[in-house]
Specification:
10 helices; 2 domains; GFO_IDH_MocA-like_dom; 33% helix; six-stranded parallel β-sheet; nine-stranded mixed β-sheet; Rossmann fold; Dihydrodipicolinate Reductase, domain 2; 17 strands; Gfo/Idh/MocA-like_OxRdtase_N; 349 residues; oxidoreductase activity; alpha/beta; globular; Putative dehydrogenase; Gfo/Idh/MocA_oxidrdct_glycsds
């Protein structure tokens, strides 16, 4: 399997893991000369370019898109039209028109689109998925997810204060895929309506809250951005309340942040005893026995899934539909903010 990588920041991390997993990274591109220099040292033998269009004419089975957050859809469409399988990181689309174009491109292509949403396969989310799928907590009624960073005002300004950088130009609601993708994966439902709120109206870009009605009737609350007090772990917290109990990841530092708590209410058990336990994920290793650190487990799953899709025709782990849905929640949220946080219906695509 021969792949190219567009964007050699996060893309270089994905490319390095790809090679460790036996995927042949033969090409890459980045507008930044220093990144290309760094990639040349990390990916010996790869054909490196400044312009992504150079990769269109190469003999590639797949491409990993890790370019700017809000610029993925046009590239994905171009590669799909060339019959190249796409693994796209960050947002699938920046607006409804891009969503429609991407869906149409995937339908007409001989190749597939996969969303590189590693948070769907992080260890704590996998433990929650097992509890939900086994109906341990009954029907899901309320699900919450955070993607938050505790950082100094100076560091936050350095990330989102430059309007020329993608973090400085996207809406405060846009970077919601790390919360919405786990929500959609755990519930198997679609977002139908979105209301968005700024956490601090005096510092509007810092953090946002999205309140999302789901197609099954339940409610989702997603928080993302920069708020203080988060544990030094992986920035993700997910809580699933059901009709018979709760399953939620731990707000804890270090390795315990990958564990979850599952509580089954006493009235649901024949013996009338509460079941309340902490569960830790199992260790993950590569085929050669090398341990995979927890924060890389989701990335390994995504890359292995992409290879299975390209080489064996397996279904994408996160296909284009949920990718577009998660991304458009941020678009609907931006409209909600502009219109006084009123509820905005999701487009029916």
């Amino acid at each position: 399997m021969r792949i190219g990588v567009v964007g050699l920041g996060m893309g270089l991390y994905l490319a390095s893991w790809s090679r460790r997993l036996g995927i042949d990274v033969v090409a890459g591109c980045d507008r930044d000369a220093q990144r290309r220099t760094d990639a040349a040292a990390a990916l010996p033998g790869a054909d490196l370019h400044e312009d992504w269009t150079a990769l269109l004419d190469l003999d590639l089975d797949g491409v990993v898109l890790a370019n700017d957050f809000d610029e993925h859809a046009p590239l994905a469409i171009a590669f799909l039209d060339r019959g190249v399988h796409v693994l796209s990181e960050a947002a699938a689309c920046a607006d409804e028109d891009q969503a429609k174009a991407l869906l149409a491109a995937e339908r007409r292509s001989t190749a597939t689109y996969s969303f590189a949403e590693n948070y769907v396969f992080h260890p704590h989310v996998e433990l929650l998925r097992a509890a939900v799928d086994n109906r341990e907590i009954g029907r899901v009624t309320l699900i919450e997810a955070d993607y938050l960073h505790g950082m100094s005002p100076e560091d936050v300004a350095g990330l989102i204060g430059d309007p020329a950088h993608w973090r400085g130009r996207i809406a405060p609601t846009a970077y919601c895929t790390h919360t919405l993708s786990p929500i959609l994966a755990l519930t198997g439902e679609q977002p139908t309506e979105v209301s968005a709120f700024l956490v601090d109206t005096t510092d509007a870009r810092t953090a946002a809250v999205l309140v999302v009605r789901l197609s099954g009737g339940g409610l989702a609350i997603a928080r993302h951005g920069f708020l203080q007090g988060e544990p030094d772990s992986h920035w993700s917290w997910v809580s699933v309340r059901g009709s018979e109990g709760i399953a939620e990841s731990l707000r804890a530092p270090g390795e315990r942040a990958w564990s979850v708590r599952v509580r089954k209410e006493a009235w649901t058990a024949p013996d009338g005893v509460v079941r309340d336990e902490e569960r830790a994920p199992k260790a993950v290793t590569l085929p050669d026995g090398t341990p995979v650190e927890p924060k890389a487990v989701g990335t390994v799953r995504i890359l292995e899934g992409f290879r299975a899709t390209v080489e064996h025709g397996a279904a994408p782990l996160v296909p284009v539909g949920p990718a577009v849905a998660a991304s458009l929640v941020g678009v609907a949220g931006a409209r909600s903010l502009r219109e006084g946080s009123r509820p905005v219906r999701m487009p029916e695509l």
